[in-house]
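Recall that a protein's primary structure is simply its ordered list of amino acids. Everything else, from secondary elements to tertiary packing, is in principle encoded there. The following example makes that idea concrete.
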Amino acid sequence: MDPAQLDGDFRSSLEALDEAFFRMRAVRDTTGAIEDFYYEYCNPAALRVLGRSSDDVIGRRLIELYPAHKNNGLFDAYVQVIETGDPLRYEFQYDENGLTGEFEVFVCRFGDGYVLVGHDISERKRAERRTLILAEQLQAALTSRVAIEQAKGYVAASYGLDVETAFMALRRYARDNNRRIGEVAGSVVAGDIDLAGGW
């Protein structure tokens, strides 16, 4: 196959990717140390993530467009990838100059620079946080329910009541003292609250 055609096919493949693809080139100072990177190539998905056109990005420097990279550890991580050759997979939050969200990226050395493939995982992270909150709420409700059932049995046995009357006593105490019934139940079983005559 003609190398030019191969290059064209490869570029077309990158253009068709749903994943953001960046090719970055190192900018070195007079001592050879990396002081910045510039954008050599961004596929359409990458430009959508950045919210910029190709003319606004290609040839521009990373720190010029997104200076927070210098302070949040990302720039140093990219330098380490180039210096060690060890690839990096990383998740991070970012909010600067119109680039906002949570991202997952894979970075590897490419010549005197790196390529980065990544995508926006903001929605997945929001869903994970919602699931975690729901799980915590369900666990709290279950813990409270277990405590209430224990307290009902404890009160019924201690005062010779039926379970329904014991529950009414717990609920009345919680309401009259503006406390949660699960909290009252735990205190009753611990012996910190005496419900005698509360029915």
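Confidence is low (pLDDT under 50) at residues 1-6. The radius of gyration is 30 Å.
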